[in-house]
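for the recovery benchmark. tokens below, seq after
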């Protein structure tokens, strides 16, 4: 194996396998070294170097370079099979690393492939160079795939698995909706319209907040399209998943009502210390704002990044009275301090147990010692009430199993508010009421 032959091998592998030439040189050096060790003792220190210009190899033993003729004779007697195995392993590792880097750059990007087989719910998708997997947990519910089907998904994760690259796909991630908007809506792809936030419960419903710097463009109407043509393609790809398109606003007082559509909101009360928003609605709008199984308010909360409590004015007044009465029992808490705490959104002992002492001192003008006592008391009460609720739930479960009416054993916590969430089915696509969609 002379220099010319080595250069030819490196060039061929570099072009055919798209592997960096330096990696191929290192592989050949490792192959020669691995095979040469069979002809030297373990105590001898060996090193192989290949000139990158001429391709001529050099073998260094214990710091001295062997005669080229001796090296040529040695290479002629080296086991070709040993060198081949090392080279194959090196090439496979290089191919794996190349694929890994390639698909790592595609993370969160939309990709298309063909289903090759389905194994116990897990879908194997051919992407051309590599096979990816679409786990059951990353599939939209009620989806079924057959061999030969085309499927679109985003690259969720890329991992090295031995000599292979494992690509994990997802159709349930929020970024899948984002990429579909980029494909179906040119203004989103061109960054004229920006997708600011997405909240999704795959297979059921998504809320997408959009904005546009150009006041002449109706961002919501552009996403819906003429007679819903644009959004319809996205809904079909998502197996009928409902999509609410919300107009983004940097002001929470405007964004929260937009996010809770189609419900009409009367007032928004911000509680910055708890990262919570209290939304007041009329009685006839309560079930609509909360949504089926709390879905509407839950998605709205994810969309804006704040906890949202929906209630009527009567429920709020009742909650305020109960909370003030409960807080007045705490040592060092006066009626005035209790009212101040409630006005900041602290309704339960659990809320009060997470307050920072310096914030409490600022609200009530208390010493550090008094603040610590109040927080400790609230923490104990919160844990006690939580334990009692678990016992009550267990007793109720046992009574239901035995076919008996559950008997209340524990009085309900004073400072806790229980709001029932009636069921309501929202329309398929909700848009901002101010949006003008051209037909």
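predicted aa per position
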């Amino acid at each position: 194996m002379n220099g010319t032959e080595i250069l030819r091998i490196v060039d061929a592998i570099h072009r055919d396998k798209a592997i960096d030439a330096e990696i191929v040189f290192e592989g050949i050096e490792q192959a020669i070294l691995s095979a040469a060790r069979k002809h030297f003792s373990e105590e001898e220190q060996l090193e192989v170097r290949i000139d990158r210009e001429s391709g001529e190899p050099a073998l260094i033993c214990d710091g001295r370079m062997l005669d080229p003729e001796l090296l040529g004779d040695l290479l002629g007697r080296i086991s070709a099979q040993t060198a081949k195995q090392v080279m194959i392993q090196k090439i496979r590792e290089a191919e794996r690393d190349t694929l890994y880097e390639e698909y790592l750059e595609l993370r969160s990007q939309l990709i298309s492939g063909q289903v090759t087989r389905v194994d116990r719910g897990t879908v194997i998708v051919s992407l051309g160079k590599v096979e990816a997997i679409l786990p059951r947990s990353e599939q939209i519910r009620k989806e079924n795939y057959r061999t030969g089907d085309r499927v679109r998904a985003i690259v969720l994760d890329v991992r090295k698995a031995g000599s292979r690259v494992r690509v994990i796909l997802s159709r349930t991630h929020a970024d899948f909706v984002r990429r579909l908007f980029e494909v179906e809506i040119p203004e989103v792809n061109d960054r004229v319209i920006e997708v600011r936030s997405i909240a999704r419960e795959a297979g059921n419903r998504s809320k997408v907040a959009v904005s546009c710097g150009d006041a002449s463009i109706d961002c919501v109407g552009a996403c819906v399209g003429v007679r819903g043509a644009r959004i319809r393609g996205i809904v079909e790809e998502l197996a009928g998943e409902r999509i609410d398109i919300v107009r983004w606003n940097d002001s929470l007082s405007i964004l929260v009502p937009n996010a809770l559509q189609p419900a009409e909101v009367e007032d928004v009360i911000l509680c910055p210390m708890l990262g919570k928003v209290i939304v007041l609605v009329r009685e006839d709008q309560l079930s609509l704002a909360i949504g089926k199984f709390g879905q509407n308010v839950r998605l709205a909360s994810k969309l804006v990044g704040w906890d949202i409590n929906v209630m009527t004015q009567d429920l709020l007044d009742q909650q305020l009275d109960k909370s003030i009465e409960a807080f007045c029992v705490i040592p060092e808490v006066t009626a005035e301090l209790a009212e101040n705490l409630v006005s900041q959104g602290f309704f339960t002992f659990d809320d009060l147990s997470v307050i920072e002492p310096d914030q409490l001192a600022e609200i009530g003008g208390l010493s550090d010692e008094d603040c610590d006592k109040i927080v400790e008391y609230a923490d104990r009460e919160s844990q006690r009430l939580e334990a009692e609720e678990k016992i009550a739930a267990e007793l109720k479960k046992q009574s239901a199993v035995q076919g008996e009416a559950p008997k209340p054993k524990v009085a309900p916590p004073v400072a806790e508010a229980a709001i029932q969430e009636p069921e309501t089915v929202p329309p398929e696509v909700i848009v901002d009421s101010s949006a003008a969609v051209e037909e």
